[in-house]
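BUG: 3D viewer hangs when loading the predicted structure for this chain

Environment: internal workstation, default settings.
Expected: structure renders.
Actual: progress bar stalls at 90%.

Input used:
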Amino acid sequence: MRSLITIFILMLFSGGLKVSAQQENIWTLDDCITYALERNITIRKNEVSNRRNELYAEQARAQRFPSLNASINQNFNWTNSNSGSATGFSGSNGSNYSLNSGVTIFNASRLSNQIRQADLDIESGKYQLETAKESISLSILDAYLQILYAEEQVNNSRKQIEATQGQLKLAVERLQLKVISEADYAQVKAQIASEKLTLANSESQLAISRVNLMQLMELPVTDSFNISHPDLSGSLNQNRLPDVSSVYETSLAIKPQIKNASVNKEIAALDEKIARAGFYPTLSASTGIGSAYSSRTDDAYFSQINDGINPSLGFSLAIPIYQKKQAKTNVAVAKLGYRDAELSEINTMNELRKNIEQACQDVISAQTEYEASLESFNSTLESSRLSDEKFIQGMINSVDYMVSKTNLIVAESRLLQSKFNLIFSYKVLDFYSGIPLTI
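Structure tokens produced before the viewer hung:
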């Protein structure tokens, strides 16, 4: 009895493991985006770059503090002496000890601006990282929808083959009864061959779409990769009338590429201030303390060290007089850099506006195309049903029947394509409006 219970528990446990394993292989859109952002090389390189910027900022802030250096010198000397009967080398040794410190008192805010610039570099790096994440997320969404589209294409192709195979059985019976000719029967067989080719192409496109998504995710290609299938059977057309100005104003306030362009302009402005500091004097202070020992004297070691202590304090003022146009050139180049940053910001804003204008137009066009495709499909479907009945009753020949079938396949394919174009266009518009990418 115990053994039976144990076996039952093990079966339940193993079954649970299988279910868990299957669930682990089902990827939602959020799972795909999260996985891609964690492993994408561009994202990881941006993170490394951001860490480097943080180190540079720490170093820039440390320049405010005085430096401190210690030095110890030990010297050995030998002298060749020829006095009377004594000849040969005699040696001596000596030691020098010093401790020095220096600090910059005034440098026309060069240091403060460099610190501010380093902090802005950190901020810019974060915006660059967010921009890269958004770009990758949008690519993942597109690839994800391509798989859903390809899967529906495959399913539709299989349904078409099943329907045509039913007609083929009927055609066989009618051929045996000599109701239709061999040519009509061959037309039905040719239609099945054509639909099988369409199915093969759809399956190939599905495989390519799956590989594309896995490669975007930096996931090794595997046959066990499957995505979840959200319910898209409801009403798709939301009849939106997007306002370009409204979406653009919203996007300007939230998009990281816009913020990054603004930060880069601030960095360029600080470059000019740092360059102008070259026209001003630099005031520095230094202090130190030192002592020495020499074996040439008879005083004890520590006695010489204590008696030889000599503190020092000094100030240094460096006044630029003629620098061969170096400071002037630096300022002129910094001004050009600021102008370049201004133009880059304007270009970034223009690119965003153009993308939003295109996204808004895509939504309007996709809605119109979807409605037209839906109407065409419904009318073609009704026509195809009538053709099926007429073909069964022998009222039309196989050529007219095949034309009806082909028209239905084309209409169904166009409807499917317009459906996913509409979904993607909505998601792109949501993306520019700051709405998270979900299905």
